[in-house]
């Protein structure tokens, strides 16, 4: 083993260590930023030492180095632009887009190596050909599925499930085509035509599966696609014999799989049911009081400000409506006004608040909300009975008391116990239902008062009303 090989392996080991430490630090919002930085440093070191290895091996042509240089510059510029310019509210769709890039890149590695070294006259072993097949299937599904998820999150496609005719039968046929073509590729019966068929069918499968999944399940889908991308990267590592890709891909695949299970448990929905799709109708607008609002009690800014300002404790429940209105800064300003009056303020974060895991934590952190005030569901639920006011901003299904009784689409789903506070103030655009497609029983609870307005407007009005209070 040459000195260069020894250095490369040591750097890979150090990078893998940084990945593990970074993942551990991402368990907490307070340390997640540092974990992200450590992971980025590890990946940067791994990329740099890989380029040194290629340089020492002298196997890359000048044209190849030019392609690497251009790709590095373009990719770095795009990543830097996205990191600095994309709003926090658009982070879920950006993550989905990055998932697509990772899955597509991994699939291209497998495709390239098979076209170059595979076939009856090639030197790919059975194990390597199997890895190529899995790499292409998983990476391509992650690529097309992530693009559809990103389009749904961005609003370029409807967020509701899009159920095509005979979708179950079509999915089975596409999966069967992938299976048959995979056998042909691994057994060297069809070669390149089989590989092309796998790519086309896997692209179609990713689109069909994600189209049928609604916005309520999108946090789980994003996490699952991220896990698929990690597995595809690990398979690509086996294809080209790169231990760093294997380690990084395995870590992403495993952590994404664990997170997917946690998200599914938080919604009380098995992963298989999520993949079948068809759940919910999307976040729909509803009638204002006077129509379908029988039993609903509304509140104005002045009354709500009095209840908030003279409460001993307020628990704020942010939801996707807050993110859609980009009202996180107004929310924090209102909270600071209440704290100046001696009110204790905490934020209750449901595991699937927002549109991806950790989305709400990121939004609140951007508005300078202290991490110590962001409380997870299991931690904050016992404290709702001691809160004078629960202020719900844009959250719907995760606050629906119907989840506590059987026979409803949200039965068994863990919810935030906002209805156990002394008073509940709900800021929402309308009385429309959430992604589950059912009315929220919280809205007709005698303790609840509805403030029907856009979150940004409502929070600004509440802040102004609190400022006018004397004493």
TrEMBL record:
Domain of life: Bacteria
Localization (cell): Cell inner membrane
A Pfam family matched in the record: PNTB
Keyword NAD: yes
Domain NADP transhydrogenase beta-like per the UniProt entry, residue ranges: 9-462
Gene Ontology molecular-function annotations: NADP binding; oxidoreductase activity; proton-translocating NAD(P)+ transhydrogenase activity
UniProt main location, coarse: membrane
Annotated catalysed reactions: NAD(+) + NADPH + H(+)(in) = NADH + NADP(+) + H(+)(out)
Membrane topology annotation: Multi-pass membrane protein
Segments traversing the membrane: 6-25, 37-57, 63-82, 94-112, 124-148, 169-187, 193-213, 246-264
UniProt EC number: 7.1.1.1
UniProt keywords, alphabetically: Cell inner membrane, Cell membrane, Membrane, NAD, NADP, Oxidoreductase, Translocase, Transmembrane, Transmembrane helix
Classification via InterPro entries: DHS-like_NAD/FAD-binding_dom, NADH_DH_b, PNTB-like
GO cellular component: plasma membrane
PANTHER family: NAD(P) TRANSHYDROGENASE SUBUNIT BETA
Family: Belongs to the PNT beta subunit family.
Function text: The transhydrogenation between NADH and NADP is coupled to respiration and ATP hydrolysis and functions as a proton pump across the membrane.
Name recorded for this polypeptide: NAD(P) transhydrogenase subunit beta
Native source species: Nocardiopsis mwathae
């Amino acid at each position: 083993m040459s000195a260069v090989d020894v250095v490369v392996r040591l750097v890979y080991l150090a990078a893998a260590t940084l990945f593990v430490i970074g993942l551990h630090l991402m368990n907490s919002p307070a340390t997640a930023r540092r974990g992200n930085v450590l992971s980025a440093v590890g990946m940067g070191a791994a990329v740099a030492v890989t380029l040194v290895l290629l340089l020492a091996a002298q196997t890359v042509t000048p044209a190849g180095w030019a392609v690497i240089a251009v790709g590095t510059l373009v990719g770095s510029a795009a990543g830097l632009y996205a990191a600095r310019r994309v709003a926090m509210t658009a982070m879920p769709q950006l993550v989905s887009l990055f998932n697509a890039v990772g899955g597509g890149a991994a699939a291209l590695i497998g495709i390239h190596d098979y076209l170059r070294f595979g076939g009856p006259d090639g030197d790919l072993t059975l194990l390597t050909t199997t890895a190529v097949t899995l790499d292409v299937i998983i990476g391509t599904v992650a690529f097309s599925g992530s693009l559809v998820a990103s389009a749904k999150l961005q609003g370029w496609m409807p967020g509701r499930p899009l159920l095509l005719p005979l979708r179950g039968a079509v999915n089975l046929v596409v999966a069967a085509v992938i299976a048959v073509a995979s056998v042909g590729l691994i057994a060297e019966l069809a070669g390149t035509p089989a590989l092309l068929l796998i790519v086309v069918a896997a692209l179609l499968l990713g689109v069909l599966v994600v189209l049928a999944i609604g916005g309520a399940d999108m946090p789980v889908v994003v996490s699952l696609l991220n896990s698929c991308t990690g597995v595809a990267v690990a398979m690509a590592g086996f294809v080209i014999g790169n231990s760093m890709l294997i380690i990084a891909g395995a870590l992403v695949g495993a952590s994404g799989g664990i997170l997917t299970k946690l998200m599914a448990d938080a919604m009380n929905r098995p992963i298989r049911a999520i993949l079948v799709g068809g759940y919910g109708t999307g976040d729909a607008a509803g009638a204002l009081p006077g129509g379908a609002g029988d039993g609903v009690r509304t509140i104005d800014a002045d009354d709500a400000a009095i209840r908030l300002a003279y409460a001993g404790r307020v628990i704020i429940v942010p939801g996707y409506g807050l993110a859609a209105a980009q009202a996180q800064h107004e929310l924090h300003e209102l909270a600071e006004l209440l704290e100046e009056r001696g009110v204790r303020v905490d934020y209750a974060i449901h595991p699937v608040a927002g549109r991806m895991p950790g989305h709400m934590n990121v939004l609140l952190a951007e508005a300078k909300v202290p991490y110590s005030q962001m409380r997870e569901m299991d931690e904050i639920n016992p404290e709702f009975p001691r809160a004078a006011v629960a202020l719900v901003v844009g959250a719907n299904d995760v606050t629906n008391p119907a989840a506590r009784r059987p026979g409803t689409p949200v039965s068994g789903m863990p919810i935030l116990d906002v209805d156990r506070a002394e008073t509940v103030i709900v800021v929402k655009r309308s009385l429309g239902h959430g992604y589950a497609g059912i009315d929220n029983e919280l809205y007709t609870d005698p303790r609840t008062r509805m403030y029907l307005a856009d979150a940004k407007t409502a929070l600004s009005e509440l802040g102004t009303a609190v400022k006018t209070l004397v004493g």
